[in-house]
Amino acid sequence: MKIEFFHPKYWLLWIGLGFLRLLIFLPYPLIMSLGKQLGLLLYYTVKYRRHIVKTNIDYCFPDMSEKEKHHLVRENFIHTGYTLVENPLTWWGKDKHIQKRAVITGIEHLQDALDNSQGVLLLSAHFTALEIGGRILSSRIPITFMYRQHKNKLFEWIQKKSREGQCDKMIERKEVRSTIKALRDKKPVWVCRRSGLWSKAQCFCPVF
Fold it and tell me: What are the residue ranges spanned by the domains of the chain?
């Protein structure tokens, strides 16, 4: 750990991370309940984010009624709250607690490609269940993840260190050569992209 992480500018983040770390000791239903309330708190207090979500939904679903749009905006914030309280489970939770609530469909196709000595590129949209989804899959098959560095150095260190303990390897998304090398070494590489084109999470598996 770098000495700079003890600078006062990081103290508030340390407190927040400590609170999140304690969440993993709570029953899962209670964690999700807290996540919902946190999402609703953000919905009512972070007005500029609510405006962004509403604007995007207006563009994507122009024929939808205002009542339906309002419901989607609210649900978006609720699921964002779920993500915030699920991340501690992803980073510090035990496999046995996570796996008993997880169902993986179609993993045999990925395994078949790997058994045939092929590298696999997994492409997914950037949805709220991405972090915990990666933890669930990597607990079954070692995965190499591409990621984008966080601007906050402490958060970047915590997130990268936690992820590295759960997966095969982390590759910064600008490291194209490392990605190609991993595929040539017949490894599965997970790439996440932000996109407004997909209405639900999809996973494509071109083989190398």
Answer: 3-93, 107-193
Q: pLDDT digit string (tens) for 115-141?
A: 888 788 888 877 778 888 888 888 888
**Length, in residues, of the chain:** 208
> How far is it, in rounded angstroms, from Cα 163 to Cα 96?
17
- In the chain, where do the E strands start and end? 120-125, 144-147, 169-172, 188-193
| Residue linked to tokens 């649900």 | 75
Residue 146 sits at φ, ψ, to 5 deg, of -95, 140
Q: What are the tens digits of pLDDT across the range 147-158?
A: 888 889 888 888
Q: Which CATH number fits domain 107-193: 3.40.50, 3.10.450, 3.90.25, 3.50.50?
A: 3.50.50
Q: What three-state secondary structure class fits 25?
A: coil
Q: Is the distance from CB of 192 to CB of 125 less than 8 angstroms?
A: yes
Place 169 in a pLDDT band, splitting at 50, 70 and 90: confident
Query: What are the DSSP calls for 67-112, one per residue?
Result: HHHHHHHHHHHHHHHHHHHHHHHHHH--HHHHHTT----SHHHHHH
d(CA 144, CA 208): 15
